[in-house]
Design goal:
Belongs to the pyridoxal phosphate-binding protein YggS/PROSC family. With about 450 residues, the chain is of the alpha/beta class. Helices cover about 40% and strands about 15% of the residues.
């Protein structure tokens, strides 16, 4: 995104914040909502551009990334009044790294007495003398297991603890993420309403002035609705900086597998001549025919075949004997793995290993195959649960087996959702219709 784009997008967001603020009831117009520009995965130059356009509050989710940016020489030189908000899950063993950063302003995600205690104990080592660290209590208003935060029923207890027992902390407000994809036309967002109710509850029980308790709710797709319901702190990233790919996922360019099932050889050759190398086939017989086709053997000598269909053990040798077989994406039993392992030395180059992927039925459907997942999922409903499930599977095997997650590819996403899959971490997308056109069913 260019400098002009960032500045223009920032201007548009600020105008929308102002317009939304003016529409609120009079009692809510006591303060202009604060904009936190969420800059995670975004380069330093875009942060500087936003800063030079007047933005001061920036939010980061990951400790390591915040460390790099807060200590970046360019930011230190050009953005001396920047105010960093930490808006991700904070582990106690990383507290000192965050507290030691220049211009740390607010921790929005305090979700336990233990975390509050450690922040309170350590802040004097890093902060200015007699200062207090601003914090928010994070509340999981949606009750989703994959989101951090305390339940609304615990809010009085934790806020009371911070106020009474954490002399080095200042309670700035409450924060929630809420459920993704809520449509404002369905009425007031229940997560935003819940956060407001939490504020009312702590103010009533602890004698606080509600105007002094900020509400951090609302992101790029819902900040205007959040402001309408009383938000005083909105966290906006995509609307300012454009869509992002998580920084840790930028370690590799996702691989495109052109799914050529039912497609004629001439179209495969055309795609190959345009630079495509990886092709996927679902049926053993069809892959046999294409892999051994004289034209493909002559014109596509660097082609790499992926088998992406269900593989029966009695057809393994047919697959392994094919020229340019590259990867079996659908290993789903120990028996299949054992037979592939036993037979590969008969066909593969000496001392080579056959690349395989484990097929996971993330949707639980009886006809579910390799991480295909359920069809027709709408991105506006939030992160695809099948893609999230596959990521969790990778995390689990890496944690239990000591593997490097960057070495474990995720094959998920097809023609209608590969962009969303890449955003969630896919490193191998299988695309057919978008390349070759809609295909007839194989009879």
């Amino acid at each position: 995104m260019s400098e002009a784009d960032v500045k223009q997008c920032l201007k548009v967001v600020l105008e929308k914040i102002e317009q939304a603020s003016l529409k609120r009831p009079q009692e809510l117009q006591y303060v202009q909502p604060r904009l936190v520009a969420v800059s995670k995965t975004k380069p330093v130059d875009l942060i500087v551009q936003a800063y030079e356009a007047g933005q001061r509050h920036f939010g980061e989710n990951y400790v390591r990334e915040l460390e790099e940016k807060a200590n970046d020489p360019v930011i230190l030189e050009k953005c001396n009044e920047i105010r960093w908000h930490f808006i991700g899950h904070l582990q106690t063993n990383k507290i000192n790294k965050v507290l030691s950063l220049p211009n740390i302003y607010l921790i929005e995600t305090v979700d336990s007495e233990h975390l509050a205690t450690t922040l309170n104990k350590n802040w004097p080592k890093f902060g200015p003398p007699n200062s207090k660290l601003k914090v928010m209590v994070q509340i999981n208003t949606s009750g989703e297991e994959d989101k951090n935060g305390i339940s609304p029923s615990e809010v009085v207890t934790l806020t009371k603890y911070i106020i009474n027992d954490c002399n080095n902390l200042h309670l700035d407000g409450l924060m929630t993420i809420g459920r993704f994809g809520y449509k404002a036309e369905n009425g007031p967002n229940p997560d935003f309403v819940s956060l407001k109710n939490c504020r009312n509850e702590i103010c009533q029980n602890l004698g606080l002035n509600w105007k002094k308790v900020n509400l951090s709710m609302g992101m790029s797709d819902g900040f205007e609705h959040a402001i309408d319901l009383g938000s005083t702190n909105v966290r906006v990233g995509t609307a300012i900086f454009g869509p992002r790919l998580k920084k840790e996922l930028q370690c590799v360019q996702p691989r495109l597998v052109a799914v050529s099932k039912t497609k004629p050889v001439d179209l495969i050759v055309q795609a190959y001549e345009a630079g495509q190398r990886h092709f996927g086939e679902n049926y053993v017989k069809e892959l046999e025919e294409k892999a051994n086709d004289p034209i493909i053997l002559e014109k596509c000598n660097e082609i790499r075949w992926h088998f992406i269909g269900h593989l029966q053990t009695n057809k393994i040798n047919k697959i392994l004997s094919l020229p340019n077989i590259y990867l079996i994406e659908t290993v789903d039993t120990e028996k299949l793995a054992t037979t592939l392992n036993k037979n590969w030395p008969k066909f593969g180059p000496p001392d080579s290993k056959l690349k395989v992927m484990i097929q996971v039925n993330t949707s639980g459907e009886e006809d579910g195959l390799m991480m295909i997942g359920r069809f027709g999922y709408k991105v506006e409903d939030g992160p695809n649960p099948d893609f999230v499930c596959l990521k969790n599977c990778r995390d689990e095997i890496c944690q239990n087996l000591g593997l490097d997650w960057k070495e474990i590819n995720l094959s998920m996403g097809m023609s209608d959702d590969f962009e969303h899959a890449i955003e969630l971490g896919s490193t191998n997308v299988r695309v057919g219709s978008s390349i070759f056109g809609v295909r007839p069913k194989k009879e």
